[in-house]
Design goal:
By secondary structure, the chain is mainly alpha-helical. The relative contact order is 0.13. It is built from 13 helices and 2 strands; from the N terminus they run H-H-H-H-E-E-H-H-H-H-H-H-H-H-H. Strands 1-2 form a two-stranded antiparallel ribbon. It is 71% helix and 1% strand. A hairpin with a 2-residue loop joins strand 1 and strand 2. Helix 3 packs across helix 6. It starts with a helix and ends with a helix. The longest helix has 35 residues.
């Protein structure tokens, strides 16, 4: 095998100064399947963040479905925030383990979803002609983030529906497979894909904006700061925090509509009906219900996922 073929076999140049050991299959495989390596790195990074921040996602879902779970306490004529009450109610009624309700569909969606996102992003970057360490422009980052998230979002929409219903407490499913069958029998394919529009309107712009803010913030950091592994991890995490806050606030209205449509598909057959209901009952602030726990979760989860992903990809030769 020529070194030239090794250079261009995966679309990104590889280090050809080191000898290629053809007697060891693993050394050859190491230079192949970069999309698979990106998928595995993304899935690994998504596992920790999904499990750690599941309680915040659960509280966010229940804040957006107030008729079921939010009981605003009045103390000295002041209405207390629902987020703390929900945490207290869950622990009191379902114990601490109840904070991880919906963990199975969350892992089933987020872990392969993060893997699909990172591998799609890697593949799209190759198609765009970017080398390993070449930075993306602002508009390139938005475009790649939107397309990559759209691809993974469409593939995993049935699991997203089940995850939302698990977390809401409105539906009682015994298992992931049982939920798929129950929804399909009662609502057909439409039930398994309900809320796809708002889901993409939430996730695709979030990913595009997040990737833009993340890459632009990281590019503003002096290059010499990135030379130290310990400093690089802190920088990656900090850039992720900044990007997550901005992207979360911009996309929260779509998240509210998605929750309504996936919990009550008969009442809200489209995004317009859900938006009209929210506006009539809660006003403009209704579009930002659950914004605080969602912002905390999405920001910390994305920051952690990108930090772990950056470290893994550097160690396996994708960086």
């Amino acid at each position: 095998m020529s070194k030239e073929l090794a250079v261009f076999s995966d679309g990104w140049p590889i280090d050809t100064t080191a000898p290629l050991d053809l007697s060891n299959k693993s050394s050859v495989d190491k230079d192949y399947h970069p999309v698979l390596k990106a998928f595995l790195a993304g899935s690994f990074s998504g596992t920790f963040s999904t499990i750690l921040f599941q309680p915040l996602d659960l509280v966010k879902t229940r804040l957006q479905n107030p008729s079921q779970h939010v009981v605003a306490a009045t103390v000295n004529s002041r209405i207390q925030p629902g987020m703390i009450n929900i945490f207290a109610n869950i622990i009191r009624q379902e114990h601490v383990a109840g904070l991880w309700r919906g963990m199975v569909p969350s892992v089933a969606r987020c872990v392969p979803g993060v893997g699909l996102y990172f591998s799609s992003l890697h593949w799209l970057k190759v198609k765009l002609g970017k080398t390993r360490n070449q930075d993306l422009g602002a508009m390139e980052a938005i475009a790649l983030g939107v397309v990559a998230r759209t691809m993974s979002g469409v593939a995993l929409i049935p699991i997203t529906v089940i995850k939302t219903r698990y977390e809401s407490g409105v539906y009682k499913y015994n298992s992931l497979g049982g939920a798929l069958k129950a929804i399909y029998r009662a609502e057909g394919i439409r039930g398994l894909s309900c809320g796809l529009g708002p889901t993409l309107a939430r996730d695709a712009p979030f990913s595009g904006l997040y990737l833009m803010f993340y890459t632009q913030t990281k590019q503003a950091v002096p290059k010499e700061w990135m030379q130290s592994p310990s400093a690089a991890s802190v920088i990656h995490f900090s850039c992720g925090i900044v990007a997550g806050i901005a992207a979360s606030l911009a996309t929260n209205p779509a998240d509210v509509l998605k929750t309504k449509m996936q919990l009550y598909p008969e009442k809200f057959p489209n995004a317009f009906s859900a938006a009209l209901y929210v506006h009539q009952n809660y006003g403009f602030k209704g579009y930002f219900k659950g914004a605080v726990p969602r912002m905390l979760r999405r920001t910390l989860m994305a920051a952690m996922a990108w930090t772990v992903f950056e470290e893994i990809t550097r160690s396996i030769g994708l960086k």
